[in-house]
Amino acid sequence: MLLPTPRGPFTASLFEHLRRPPHTFDAPPVPDVEDEDLQLALFACYELHYRGFADVDEEWEWEPSLLAVRKALERRFEDGLARVVPRPSPPPGVPMRRALADLVAADEGPRLSAFLARQADLEQFREFVAHRSIYHLKEADPHTWGIPRLSGAPKAALVEIQADEYGGGRAERMHSELFRTTLRELGMDDSYGAYLERVPAITLAISNTMSLFGLHRRHLGALLGHLAAFEMTSSAPNHLYSLGLRRLGGDEAARRFYDEHVQADAVHEQIAAHDMCGGFVRQHPSRAGEVLYGAACALTLDRLFAEHVLDRWQRGISSLRETELMAGSR
């Protein structure tokens, strides 16, 4: 993957530096960065901790001046999250599993999955898959950063979930590989980061939230709560995604990614809520609020994403950043 096209003056300046050998530099003021510019800049900084960019020297990953820029971007991003995501208070005497279930049950966001199951056309389904490719092609990686920061039962629970995400040691069953099959079956580009140019800020914000929580030990509780909400809201939507894809002519291979999540995540949600998050809060009672906040971030951003997509489709325009046929499709 190469550095994408800048989306404003901040990423234009940042990417100009990143294409050169590592060096000390001063970035433009972060408070002035618009959302598309901010999210792409933060995504690029985080991506250096994943697979990186072919045109960026690997030594940039730990360059102190770039870390200072990332810290300023993160502060702006965290302030934005705090404004749009109310911080839940842990209900006294309520087990974490029940508190998470109540939080999920109270979510009243638009049901994008129902639209995809019953109404979406093939181009719209491809758009949805393009959005999701930003995370699904590295599925599980952000949450795996939590493993070395845990101990005891919560650690074992997270390892159990992640082992399934990585296919139980079988490369062809890794969820990221199953998603690549879905992309190919839909005639889309299955290469890592292929649709980065196309996705809007809200899609990048979903990925950036996971990376933010995963990379910072202080956000460990939020990382676990985020994963729990992710698992607890997965089975039913993935069943609907599979139904929609079958309605549009998708065969078993195209639908396997979604069908796998219907089964796996029905088990994962119990492990995540009770063993992982519940065990973590039993070890660290004062961090219950962090767990619920991470879950609330996952739910809120998914709602904002669904609102963006459905609003665009209802107006007859693409939910991606261009209206023409997806670049990179075959």
From TrEMBL:
**SUPFAM superfamilies on file:** Heme oxygenase-like
Task: Indicate what this protein is called per its UniProt record.
Answer: Iron-containing redox enzyme family protein
